[in-house]
Each structure stands twice: as C-alpha cells, then as structure tokens.
Write a structure and sequence with these properties.
Elements: H1 2-22, E1 25-37, E2 42-47, E3 54-55, E4 60-64, H2 67-85, H3 90-93, H4 95-123, H5 129-186, E5 189-191, E6 196-201, E7 208-209, E8 214-231, E9 243-249, E10 255-265, E11 270-271, E12 285-294, E13 304-308
Antiparallel strand pairs: 1-8, 1-13, 2-4, 2-7, 3-6, 4-5, 6-8, 8-12, 9-10, 9-13, 10-12, 11-12
C-alpha cells in the first residue's frame, strides 16, 4: 500500500512537471483594429460591405450624400465671380487723365520749340519781347495743367488700387471656403484605408452619418497579435525580434504550432488577468508581451494560445 502511494505521488509530480514545462506563458489573440469614422454629416447612400467580408485597401466602402455641400460650393463660387466684377479696371478708369496728359505733353513740346525759335528771333530783332512773354506764359500754363492732371490721375489710381485690394482681400476667404468644401466633398466618399476583415458594422444604408460617428471596424488578419503574459523569471529570455513557438488547439488533441516574433515587451509588471494561466500558477505579477504571428486563416480574435520560449 505504501509503495502504491509513492508511485501515485511520483506520477502526480511527473504530470505537474510535464504540465509546467509544456509552455511558458498564455494569452489571447488580438488584431490591429481600425475604427473608420465619418468626418461629414449626411445620409448614407451606398454601403458596399457586410460584416465578416474582407475589404481591400482603396475600395469605396460608403458613399454619403453630398448635395448640400455641393450647393454651398456653387454658392461660394458665384460670390467669387460677383466680387470679380466689382474689381475696377484701373487703366480704363484713369484713361481720360492719360489722354489729357498726352495732349499736354505734345503742346508742351511744341511751345518749348516755339519759345526757343522766338528767343532766337529776338536776338536778331525779328520778334518782340511781348511775343516771348506770351509764349513763355502759355508754356507755363500747359505745364501747370499737366501737373494737375497727373496729380488727379495718381489720386484716382491710388483710390482704385485700394478698392481693388479691398475686394481681393474679401475674395481670399472665399477661396479658402472652396478648398474646405472640396475637402468635405471628397470625404463624402469613404475609402477603406487598409486591407482587412470587417469585424463590426455600426451603420445601415439610409441612416444619417455624423462627424466622429463610427461607421465600421476592420482588422488586418494576415498577421495577428498574441498578447501573452510572462512571469519575471522569464524576462531574461525575452527580447524584441526573438522568434518563439505559439501553440493553439488544432483539429485533434495535438496542438498546432506557429512561429511568432516578439515585437513589444511591457516595461512594467501588472497583476495576472483572471482569464490567463501562466506556467507558474502562483505568480501574481506578470509582464505583457506582444507576439506577431502569421495567420493561415485558423487563428481568430480572442482565441487562447500558449507560448514556449
């Protein structure tokens, strides 16, 4: 009887040791999940996917009604066009002064030559001083008129430039509005950002999308993350980039093994999650580790797995 008890004890110890050495940590699989949300409001006109469907990157997932945004853009474009008509044509509006100045330039040139001719004649006693005074007075008058017209032209040109600059300044914000509305129009078409499986669909066709409202959740399942928990005595064997064996339940009693790569190790310990069993059941503090595992289609989110270093 005593021998039987010893044999039973050895069997139990052997089984426990075998169980302890079977794996170094346990965890569950998670995905790199992306929640796609709306950035604009409007009725959902098209919904091009179902839950569980694999969406490629770049595919149009949803189309939101853009009518109101399009009408606002047309309205702002009309405002820009109307404002453009108010910009003055400085050349045409100051043309009258330019014409008067051109006429006076011609007259000043003529009077200058005529004054020189009379002055030469006066030296030969062929003209009188009065003739020279008269032509000099006409020349000075023409020059004064030119100065007046030139000043008026500059004043009007300055006023028109100020008016034009003011109108152009009013137009600039309208161009910014056009860019904003164009951006909103682009965002009414929701393009799937990354290849993955649709995990959850939060909306239905003809519902109203709102800015910030989630539309669907997607995860790339080509590779999957195992968040496993290791006790402190395993830290020496953990290193980012290291390959480890990941074991999951297969179709039979035998576990299926995958090769995963450690890509993150927590810098702080935490209490062991209730749903996780470690190789040392007595451990209270563990370190979370993320292991990236290639998925052959068998691995699912939430599935348990064991890790062997």
């Amino acid at each position: 009887m005593k021998n039987k008890i010893w044999i039973l004890a050895l069997f139990i110890l052997s089984a426990c040791a075998s169980k302890k050495l079977a794996y170094d940590a346990s965890g569950t699989f998670e995905g790199d999940e992306i929640i796609v949300s709306s950035e604009v409001s409007g009725q959902i006109l098209a919904l091009n996917f179902e839950e569980g469907e694999e969406l490629p990157a770049g595919k149009i997932a949803l189309v939101i009604d853009s009518t109101q945004t399009w009408l606002k853009k047309k309205q702002v474009e009309a405002q820009i066009k109307a404002a453009g008509y108010r910009i003055p044509d400085i050349k045409s509006q100051t043309g009258q002064y330019a014409s008067q100045i051109a006429v006076l330039d011609t007259r000043i040139d003529y009077l200058t030559k005529e004054r020189q001719r009379i002055n030469n004649m006066l030296k030969d006693d062929a003209a009188t001083p009065k003739q020279l005074d008269d032509i000099t007075q006409q020349l000075e008058e023409a020059r004064r008129q030119r100065t007046v017209y030139s000043s008026q032209k500059m004043a009007q040109s300055s006023a028109l430039h100020t008016q034009s600059a003011s109108i152009r300044a009013d137009i600039k914000p309208l161009f910014v509005q056009i860019e904003q509305l164009s951006d909103q129009l682009n965002k009414t078409t929701i393009v799937n950002p990354e290849k993955g499986i649709v995990l959850t669909r939060y909306v239905n066709k003809y519902e109203i999308a709102q800015p910030g409202k989630p539309l669907y959740k997607i995860a790339n399942m080509d590779t999957i993350i195992l968040r496993a928990y290791f006790t402190g005595d395993h830290l020496y064997g953990l290193k980012t980039g290291k390959e480890v064996s990941v074991m999951v339940e297969g179709n039979s009693d035998k576990k299926k093994t995958y090769i995963g790569t450690i890509e993150w190790i927590s810098s702080e310990a935490e209490f062991t999650p209730k749903t996780i069993q470690t190789a040392d059941e007595r451990a209270n503090l563990v370190y979370a580790v993320k292991i990236r595992v290639p998925n052959d289609g068998h691995l699912k989110l939430g599935m348990y797995a064991d890790v062997k270093l």
